[in-house]
Amino acid sequence: MTSTPAKPTRELLFPDLSDDIDARIAWFQHMQKNQPLRFRPEYNLWEVFRYEDVQYVLKNPEEFSVSNKTHLGLPFSFGRADIPDHRFLRGFVARSFQPGNIEGLAPEFAAMVDALLAPARESGRLEVLGELGYPIMERVVGQMFGLRIPGVNLFREWSDQMFGQLIGVRSPDHADVVDLFREQLDERKLDPRDDLMSALLAARRKDDRLAEEKIIHMCLDLATAGNAPLSLLLAYTFQRFCRDPELFQTLRRDPSLIPGAIEEILRFDFSWFNLWRTARHDTVLGGQEIKADQYVVVWDSSANFDEKHFPQADRFDIRRSPNPHLTFGQGMYICLGLPLVRVLGRVVLERLVATFSDLAADPDRPVRTLEQMKDYVVSLDVVLTPSKTAVS
Ligand code: HEM
């Protein structure tokens, strides 16, 4: 009698990741060379380490399905809808995220970031996630989608809940958020507005594929999917400035280096990301036979250290070009928030280097991370020196 494999969670894969980044990179590169596809029979799961294989899985949704990645009881979203439903659903919201539209919001974003940094100009202190990352996303999500967000603390709690479920460090518990979005949907049925939910409701009248549950979950996904990773991106950036004050000064002297710095932080510091798929049918990947329904976990973070695509991959280099990292995924499920992350990240750093002449870790308040996951920063306090002349 064969035993049924355990339902895997992402958390089960984390123990292989060393807390030491050099050891982590060495492990990725060792796996790429010696065991580019590793089968874990206890979970009926394949892990994929090489850039080409990772890219192949992400770009072939006909062979590798996304629908089973709801293994942690996350509500349905279009990021977990298989083709052809995915194209249909993503089409509704893609317009809001077009790079041209987002770039046009840069001056508004700059004013918002200045307002959030103003108290730190007075106090000389900032908690990066609670006072910058999540408040930025609360405002952006509220404005872009016209959703009512009841305060930044609750907003952060939902975001942490959803992202925590996705990476396997929290259990399902999202009924309250779903109820809150259902209320907003009911309001718009009676009183349509110029916002995403009302547009989706209007579209539903013409196409019954857009069930109400789907509308609620799409909005929920948009409101929560990117908040934790965007806040982490800021935390990783500030941590780099604390460790390497010269990096901050380099960006102050030449802010045109900011976009390249952000791409390199995305490549280097999300070195724990992996993306989940399931084989739709028996197939072959990198010379290995994969059976239908087996889990396929691609380590996009490992691909980001594949020497074939990133010469001297273990060197952090803000001038690296090209930098084809896979931190946003690839193919049709590529992060919808990508243009937003690039513009917001750039604007935050531009305003930061214009407003402050120096920053360092706050010696009185050490960084806090999740116990099970050191890469998941919970709070990061810094001390800042305001510039004598603020650059506009
Ligand atoms: C540093 C920040 C971010 C990172 C690293 C990131 C990463 C990712 C990745 C890797 C995927 C693909 C998942 C897969 O293929 O299974 C994804 C999808 C997605 N992301 Fe992001 N994300 C970020 C920020 C955001 C933001 C700010 C938003 C929205 C406001 C967002 C919204 C989405 C959505 C809606 C999807 C699903 C897209 C689809 O399936 O068509 N993300 N993200």
UniProtKB/TrEMBL annotation:
<dbReference type="GO" id="GO:0020037">
    <property type="term" value="F:heme binding"/>
</dbReference>
<dbReference type="Pfam" id="PF00067">
    <property type="entry name" value="p450"/>
</dbReference>
<dbReference type="InterPro" id="IPR036396">
    <property type="entry name" value="Cyt_P450_sf"/>
</dbReference>
<dbReference type="GO" id="GO:0005506">
    <property type="term" value="F:iron ion binding"/>
</dbReference>
<dbReference type="InterPro" id="IPR001128">
    <property type="entry name" value="Cyt_P450"/>
</dbReference>
<dbReference type="GO" id="GO:0004497">
    <property type="term" value="F:monooxygenase activity"/>
</dbReference>
<dbReference type="GO" id="GO:0016705">
    <property type="term" value="F:oxidoreductase activity, acting on paired donors, with incorporation or reduction of molecular oxygen"/>
</dbReference>
<comment type="similarity">
    <text>Belongs to the cytochrome P450 family.</text>
</comment>
<protein>
    <submittedName>
        <fullName>Putative cytochrome P450</fullName>
    </submittedName>
</protein>
<dbReference type="InterPro" id="IPR002397">
    <property type="entry name" value="Cyt_P450_B"/>
</dbReference>
